[in-house]
Design a protein that fits this description.
This protein is an alpha+beta fold. The chain is built from 10 helices and 11 strands. The chain is elongated, with a radius of gyration of 32 Å. The N and C termini lie far apart (78 Å).
Length: 323
C-alpha cells in the first residue's frame, strides 16, 4: 500500500510515517519503480507507535516494543525489554512530577505574597490553598435575566438609613450629597483565604464582585469627570471585611455595610439565598438629589459594569432634566 493509505489507516500524518521510517522503526520494501510499499505489519507498527505516544512514551523510545512485535509476540509489551521501557517512562514522569510540584509550590508562595501584600488580614499558612482566581471571571457564567424586581425603583426617594462606611464614618443614605451618586450593590466580595459559597458560579449574577470593584476603581476618575459626586459599594458584609477589600484592591472610594439588609426592606431591593445567607442581588443605583434616577439591573458582565455606568452618564448629562 502507498504511504497515504498507511497513514490514514493508522491514524497519523504522512509526515509522521516518514519520521518513523527515518528512525528505522518501519522499513517498507521498494517496488521496481522506486515507490515504497507498506504492508499490514507496518500498519500495526505505526498504530503501536501512536498508542505508546498517547501514554507519553516518545517515538524514539518505542523500539523495544516494536522489536517485541517483530519477534512474533502477540503484544508489544510481552518482552522484558518492553517492561523496562514502561519503567523508564514512569521514572521520567516521576521526575517531571517532582519538578512541577516544586515549581507549583514556588508559584503558590508568590501568589500568597501578592494576594496579601496590601491586606490587613494575615497571610495563611503554606498548607492553605489560594487557587480561587477572584480577579478574572470564569468562562460561560450564567447570564442573569431581568425579572422585573427593580422596575419600581426609579423615582423612589432614598430612605433615611445610617450605614457604616469603611472610611470610619456613618453615612446617611438619604444625604449622600447633592448631584449624582453611584451606589453599586453587590452580594459579597470573595477573599483569597475564604471559600465562595457552594455553587456560587452557577447562580446567575453572583460571581464577579471583585472584578466589578476593580472596574469602578479603574474608571473612578472618569466617573467623577462625568458628573458623579461620589461612588460607593454596598453589601451586607461587615465593615471590617469590607475594609480589607478596600485595602487589598486599593479602592479610591468607600464601601457601605448593611448587614441587616435594611435597604432591601425599605426599597424592596431584590435578594437571593445561598448557604443559609440572604444576599443582595447585584444592581446599581444612580441617586440624584436623594431620588433614584436610574437603576442598572441586572448587571452583566460585572467586570465591565463601571464602563456601562460611565456610558449612561455621558449619554444623560446631569444638566438634563430628570428621567
Amino acid at each position: 500500500m502507498r504511504i497515504g493509505e498507511l497513514a490514514g489507516r493508522a491514524g497519523v500524518t504522512i509526515k509522521a510515517v516518514r519520521y518513523y521510517e527515518s528512525l528505522g522503526l518501519i522499513t517498507p520494501r521498494r517496488l521496481a519503480n522506486g515507490y515504497r510499499d507498506y504492508d499490514e505489519d507496518d500498519v500495526r507498527l505505526v498504530r503501536e507507535i501512536r498508542t505508546l505516544g498517547s501514554l507519553g512514551i516518545p517515538v524514539e523510545r518505542t523500539r523495544p516494543f516494536l522489536e517485541c512485535l517483530a519477534a512474533g509476540q502477540r503484544h508489544a509489551d510481552d518482552c522484558p525489554a518492553s517492561l523496562a521501557g514502561y519503567r523508564e517512562a514512569i521514572d521520567g514522569l516521576t521526575e517531571r512530577i517532582e519538578a512541577l510540584t516544586a515549581r507549583r509550590a514556588v508559584l503558590r508562595r508568590h501568589l500568597r505574597q501578592a494576594a496579601y501584600r496590601n491586606s490587613s488580614v494575615p497571610s495563611p499558612d503554606d498548607g492553605e490553598d489560594l487557587m480561587s482566581d477572584l480577579y478574572r471571571l470564569p468562562a460561560n457564567l450564567p447570564v442573569p435575566e431581568d425579572d422585573g424586581a427593580a422596575d419600581h425603583l426609579p423615582g423612589r426617594k432614598v430612605p433615611r438609613l445610617e450605614l457604616a462606611s469603611t472610611a470610619g464614618e456613618t453615612v446617611r443614605a438619604d444625604v449622600l450629597g447633592s448631584g449624582r451618586t453611584v451606589v453599586y450593590v453587590y452580594p459579597l466580595t470573595g477573599r483569597p483565604d475564604a471559600d465562595l459559597p457552594h455553587g456560587w458560579d452557577s447562580i446567575p449574577g453572583a460571581r464577579g464582585c471583585t472584578t466589578e470593584a476593580c472596574d469602578f476603581r479603574d474608571h473612578h476618575q472618569e466617573l467623577l469627570a462625568a458628573g458623579v459626586r461620589g461612588v460607593f459599594g454596598l453589601s451586607s458584609q461587615d465593615t471590617a471585611y469590607q475594609r480589607e477589600v478596600v485595602e487589598r484592591l486599593r479602592l479610591p472610594f468607600a464601601m457601605l455595610s448593611d448587614p441587616r439588609l435594611r435597604l432591601a426592606a425599605d426599597l424592596g431591593l431584590p435578594t437571593f439565598e445561598v448557604d443559609g445567607l440572604t444576599l443582595f442581588k447585584r444592581l446599581t443605583l444612580v441617586i440624584r438629589d436623594e431620588v433614584i434616577e436610574h437603576v442598572f439591573y441586572p448587571v452583566f458582565p460585572p467586570s465591565e459594569h463601571a464602563q456601562q455606568v460611565l456610558a449612561w452618564l455621558r449619554d444623560n448629562p446631569a444638566a438634563a432634566s430628570k428621567t
